[in-house]
Amino acid sequence: xxxxxxxxxxxxxxxxxxxxxxxxxxxxxxxxxxxxxxxxxxxxxxxxxxxxxxxxxxxxxxxxxxxxxxxxxxxxxxxxxxxxxxxxxxxxxxxxxxxxxxxxxxxxxxxxxxxxxxxxxxxxxxxxxxxxxxxxxxxxxxxxxxxxxxxxxxxxxxxxxxxxxxxxxxxxxxxxxxxxxxxxxxxxxxxxxxxxxxxxxxxxxxxxxxxxxxxxxxxxxxxxxxxxxxxxxxxxxxxxxxxxxxxxxxxxxxxxxxxxxxxxxxxxxxxxxxxxxxxxxxxxxxxxxxxxxxxxxxxxxxxxxxxxxxxxxxxxxxxxxxxxxxxxxxxxxxxxxxxxxxxxxxxxxxxxxxxxxxxxxxxxxxxxxxxxxxxxxxxxxxxxxxxxxxxxxxxxxxxxxxxxxxxxxxxxxxxxxxxxxxxxxxxxxxxxxxxxxxxxxxxxxxxxxxxxxxxxxxxxxxxxxxxxxxxxxxxxxxxxxxxxxxxxxxxxxxxxxxxxxxx
Length: 503
Ligand code: NAP
Ligand code: MG
Hints:
By secondary structure, the chain is of the alpha/beta class. The protein contains 15 helices and 23 strands. It starts with a strand and ends in a 21-residue tail after the last strand.
């Protein structure tokens, strides 16, 4: 018997109004792993209404930051206590290797709730009063209201935390809609939020399709703000829908991030780093280092090292602790990756490693692809410009730092980038010229909830994480308090005591 998962609306678990369900597929096996209630438009409205009531009538937005922080810490504690189950769900539903879900995912979820708890506590130290021309003035930050969050399938549990933690820390209520391909850890987090004692309706989680439940949420007049992570194409649609009642939006979209290896880099370290940059989670990472620019003087030796080391990456079932790389999320995604590899060949690039589906013994139905490296790539090729979202790396040579920066910036995206170099001053110079929201020097994937994350150009709008990300969930109010009283002179441009010509 497969496990069944329900929606979380208004503090209670609930089936879909229509009674519909859908299957969650384990990408390692291609088999059904669980059954999930499928929210439709009605359920989206029901969840938005629960969040609206919790915001308009409930205690949450009126609570002090330090009080709200206690609930966030409680959620973090429950995630810790339930780490085994959450990790297992992420592995079986979203294809995260078990090492990754137990380590990276659980760690990031806990620290996201903790960091926003800290920030919520500090909220109360803000608002200094300032005196100005007979008045006292202060700036107050207030929650925005009901937040809708729509997330992708690649890092479900982390994405849920990235959306829920800042929203509720700032006093908002939230409705989260995960991707159909990987909803389970969202629903489990929804349950933990209820168990943590959050007032009913503060956190609602509905699994349903984007076209149906997703659009209904983003379009709803009950919703004040939308946070979306996903493709640039759907991001455009979200902006259009959000325009109905002028919702605030943050968008975290696609990427085609450039890793630049300068000729003074520690080559072994950079080879490992480049592989981790692209093949972590089979390349299904928005900020993956998908374009690798290598200085021409070291290009050949670097490429040889890269191909040799890529050969040692163990592709296997996500549940198997020895696997370095698991499956891609779905049959559809596997086919997309295959199509792009064919495109790369047609464009004249050379497959130096991989290039085919991977066979994993005992898991014939799984969606596995080999770690694939293209050489002979020109930055204008489709495989260097379009987001593939799979384990495919494009390696491109460059002459000098000037050319590396120019080529790296030649992209519609601007999410992340990186520089590998033994010279910090040189690396920083390059880093500062990259038109991206994050740059890693001699590292990759170092996303930290204390520091903002988001994209330039078509990689998005606004930032998540840190104080900046917290502020994206708050309105700003200026309060002016008159100190002069009734005896002061009126404003010269509005003084009824001045005789007028008709008097
Ligand atoms: P997607 O197709 O854009 O879907 C993302 C989410 O939007 C899913 O929940 C989806 O629901 C929903 N959706 C689809 N159409 C919608 C609509 N018309 N209205 C409202 N919601 C709608 O992206 P994906 O394929 O799941 O994820 C991969 C993409 O996400 C990549 O482009 C990647 O770069 C990006 N990403 C970006 C970041 C970042 O931080 N910048 C992080 C992770 C991923 P369904 O389940 O029904 O499709
Ligand atoms: Mg699944």
